[in-house]
Fold each of these.
Amino acid sequence: MPRLAVLGHPVGHSRSPAMHNAALAALGLGAEWRYEAIEVAPEDFAARVRAMPGEGFAGANVTVPHKTAAFALADVSSEGAGRIGAANTLVFADGQIQAHNTDAGGLIDALPISPSGIRALVLGAGGAARAAVWALRTEGAVVDIWNRTEARALQIHLELSDPAQPEDSIQIELQGEFRGAVVEQFDQDEYGLIVNTTAVGLHGEDPFEELPLRRAGFGPGTVVADMVYGEGPSTLLQVAAATGAEVVDGLEILVRQGALSFQIWTGLEPPLDVMRAAAYSLGGR
Ligand code: ATR
């Protein structure tokens, strides 16, 4: 029986087992494949992963806080995982550990628009931001980055901009300093897409206090995505939706990354509706 798993710390809250087991059952693979949650502490992560191929695992998802470690221990990696420097999907095949990053493609697939040619603002500078910046830039968006701690935004800029194409470099909003020039005001209206990757809102923080956003700065024609999800749509998404903006819930991004991982492991078309229903049925949704 090929085994699959999500590795995290903590991992108990993960919706991935329900989502993937529902998909496997829908495709008639429920008796053959099984997807489980495995709690693993950072110090045990590498040894745990290396033991998995011998235990019958075909692959795994990797979540917080292991995504960087997963990339680091892989023998080969996709271009995206390499540029992002983190992996959320591992494949065990041919005696090798392969690393992929489907958080990037999951965001793109969840968007109601093509990012090509649009101006996007990514809030945050952690792992989720790196995936978003790489994905959007690869799809042809011009990407501005804002982060509470400026140095981390600068780091993403340095690592993900293309030195061969300086005119196409990622632009950075550094709390007033914009690529060396001073901006009078952070102009939210300029963006066709705003992606929140920060944890703001998860524990009741007010996004309009903590992030450089104005409630009135959204409107029809803006897409607002929140990569973080809770038990219901975030305050950010509720306010944006009320102004007529299109919103993308983090749970939809989770479903889309899961679908891409499922396809990588099984080679089959993922049953999106089944995965979505399973993900949304947990935790009060
Ligand atoms: P992940 O890898 O999941 O993206 P992370 O590396 O912990 O997580 O990054 C969390 C992001 O949320 C960071 O950009 C963090 O900003 P800092 O780099 O300044 O720490 C951001 N964040 C968390 N709480 C925040 C808050 N109250 N206001 C603004 N940004 C916040």
Note: The first strand starts at residue 3 and ends at 8.
Amino acid sequence: MRIGVGYDSHRFGPGGPLVLGGVPIPVDFRLVGHSDGDAIAHAVTDAVLGAAGESDIGSLFPDSDDANAGRDSIEMLALAMEKVRSMGFHVINVDVTVISETPRIAAHRQEMRERIAEALGVAADQVGLKGKTNERMGWIGRGEGMACIAVALLAPSGADG
Ligand code: MG
């Protein structure tokens, strides 16, 4: 089996909705990024690519490519997963922690798990997802943006999972 870790952070900017875990959350701020800024999708993408020994989301989908501007990050995750699958791996599970003072994750958790699971070709119960605040400390605590950490476990195709 192969394990990978991914991290991502994005700054908040004016104008909603905020797209996170593939789900548009109706708030009046968003995650600023070249793509849709979906920090969960980016962290999961890097975890899955890392587990396969690949580099990262920025190498697959460079900022310099206009085709990636405003792009749906769940679509990028699905494409990264296609690559990982072609290398002979499938996902056993992923687990994600979102660190942010706002918005609260709980109300959107199940829908996010389903979107991520769909992109990975697994069931929603193979996707862990939880939100934590940063206890009002530092840049996250001041509400300047959010961070996400993800781990992914892969197995060779044909193995149990
Ligand atoms: Mg990102």
Note: The two ends are 11 Å apart (CA to CA).
